[in-house]
Amino acid sequence: MELLLEVKGTFEIAGRGLALVPDLQLQTRTKDSIHEVVVERPDGSSILSQARLVVEHFRPVGYKLVAYLPQLRKEQVPIGSKVLWLVGSGGSDTAITSGYRG
Predict the structure, then answer these.
(1) What's CA 96's distance to the chain center, in Å?
(2) Beta strands 46-58; 25-26: pairing state
(3) What are the pLDDT digits (tens) for 7-19?
């Protein structure tokens, strides 16, 4: 497992699910992908879920990664939770490690 992000804030978007914005600025738009993740909560419990990683354009700052967890609700992912990516779980390993994490 590899740390994808630490939750700083959450909000729910109808039709998309729970959105986590890790506030990572990206140089270019990268292909969207779906990955299996583990959400480790501050109380030590964890949840297995899917994350849809989408690069959205925000003005005026540019591209940012948004992680959507459509299977979870806001109260299930408290601030301070860590989202761990299960390496090889889908999408492109290169997109995650160089595009999103770079």
Answers:
(1) 10
(2) unpaired
(3) 888 888 888 888 8
